[in-house]
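Let us practice reading a record.
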Amino acid sequence: MLKDIARKGWALTPLGGGYARVEGAMYAAYVVITDEVTEAERDDYLRLFSHRPAVPGEATHWLRQWMKEAKMKQPDMEDLPGFAELFRKSLRKALDEMPVEERLEGLAPEQRLAGLATEEVILALPVEVLQMLSEEHVRSLPADVQETIRKRLQGAAH
């Protein structure tokens, strides 16, 4: 869009709060940057259609209700542009509200730790297991990990 505005010899004048005016066009034209307006106006409904995460409240309740309404559903709704992102945001919100234990329920231990670096996995070990690590192995770890392990072991000793 910015390239098109420049190519036509027009200019974009920021008005603040996520709004801008297109200068030089035959008719009055404005640009609304939804991500910025969402924040500036604290508009939770607009937030649903921005790149910002959805927040619990009236807007997300409305979205849930809208998606349940049979008359609002389209047979190919999943194919609509932006549906996947909107669904992901809604799912993310639900997960964020869920206690960690529930989110992890049913996952095998290796799935719970997937994506963690070896050092992070070691730091997740209970103190009883850390006590079994040889001093040589602990010294082979990065300094910050060594320090954290030693603090946890000292705390368990008291």
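A brief commentary: The CA atoms of residues 56 and 93 lie 7 Å apart.
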